[in-house]
Amino acid sequence: MSPGTATAAATKPAEPRYAIYFAPPAQSPLWRFGSAVLGYDAETGEAPPLPELKRFDATRWHEITTEPRRYGFHGTLKAPFRLAAGRTETELRAVCARFAKDRAGFACAGVTLNTIGRFLALRLAVPSAALDRLAAGAVAAFDDFRAPMSETEREKRLRAPLTPRQQDYLARWGYPYVLEDFRFHMTLTGSLDDDERTLAEAELAEHFAMSGADGPLIVREIALYRQEAGPFRLVARFPFGS
Known about the structure:
39% of the residues lie in helices and 20% in strands. By secondary structure, the protein is of the alpha+beta class. The longest helix is centred in the C-terminal third of the chain and has 18 residues, at 194-211. The radius of gyration is 19 Å and the shape is globular. The model is unreliable at 1-11 (pLDDT under 50).
C-alpha cells in the first residue's frame, strides 16, 4: 500500500448508522425536557440550555450524559445499524413511510423516572401492548436494511450478561433486547455509581415534575435517526396513517 493510499484509508469517513426511534413531538414538554437534560436537541442539532442544576456543576452533568447524548433523546424501536450492501437511505425512507402509513396512533399511560441497572431513564408507567407490537414490527420490517455486525460489535455486546434467548436475538436481529425482551425506555444518563445515581435521580425527578411532561405518551409517528461524524440526528419523521 502506498503512503497516499494509507492516508486515504485512515481518513475515510465511517459509514453512517441509522436507527428507527420513537421521538416525542419537537415542541412537546417531553422532548424539551429530554433534550435539555442531555444538552442536545437531535432535531435541530443545537445544545439547549441545561436545567438549573442543584446537585451537579455543568461540567460533571455534561460528563454523565455523554453516552445518551450520542444517540439523542429517543425510545428505541429498531436499534442502530449500518446499511446492508446495496441498500440506500432513499429506500429506507420509503419503507419507513410505508411502515407508518399502515399504523394508527395510540396513547400510553405516560412515563416515569426509573433506574435501569446503573443508569437512569424514563419508562412507561404501565406496560403497553400496542408499543410492544410497534417495536416488534419495526425489528422485523427494517432488518433487511441492517448490515451484519462486525466481530468487534458482537464481542462488545457479548460482554453483557445475556440470557440464552438474548444471545439468540443478538445473532438473529443484531440486538439482544427485542421481542419478549423489549422494554421501552428513554435513557437520560450513563452508568453511575450508587451515590451519584441517587443524586442524579433526585435532580431529574425535580426537573421532570416541573416540565409538564407527565401526561399520556402519545405515539403517532416514527422517526429516522442518522449518525455520521457526530451524534445521531433526527432526519425525518413519518406520521402514522399518512
